[in-house]
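The records we work with from here on pair a chain with its fold. A complete example follows; check for yourself that the lines match position by position.
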Amino acid sequence: MDYYSLSYLLIFASILITIIAQIYVNSSYSKYKKIKNSKEITGAEVAREILDKHGLSNIYVTETRGFLSDHYDPTRKVIRLSKEVYSGTSIASVSVAAHEVGHAIQDKEGYGFMRFRSAMFPLVNLSSKAGYFAILIGIIFSITDLIWIGIALEMVILLFQLVTLPVELDASKRAKEEIAKNDFLVSNEQIGSEKMLRAAAFTYVASLLTTLIEIFRLILIARSDD
């Protein structure tokens, strides 16, 4: 297989993985957001109850705009939940809310991977902007060393994704434990919750795989210019 055929194959594989991941998480979320939990508890109520039981009354739970825009902000100590999760009483709402609280608990306990990820943010922001710029200039002007510098910057993003994966998997694990311990969902609903959290975790695996593929493709470009 020649260089161009392999390059196109890698691009196709990367796009395919991304599409599959998005379909998987969106279909899973869409399914379980339609199924109401039997206790009719909202995502906001779930988040508040878990936080209070862990002595995290200082962390606010607020509503935010967007689809699946839910996240924990460690700098402002706020859990932001999308409208469907914040006021929704679905299995998905409970699952997503509990997952975000998992991050808050990680923050309280000083979870190592989370602290390392937070420390990497400034470097990752720089790498994401400068990496492809260096690669583009290197390709245009046939400066191989500049391409390799760009690849090194992209490796920083790969490291960030490697660190993010255990952070997200651990938050999902904590979410499952809290949901079971606090009886937010009955047994058959818990099965659905676990499937949804698994689908969400797959998106991080997919991102890691696509970055690996892209770095491999960039290495091929750099070597072809040697």
User: Anything to note?
Assistant: Residues 144-181 form the longest helix (38 residues). DSSP finds seven helices and three strands in the chain.
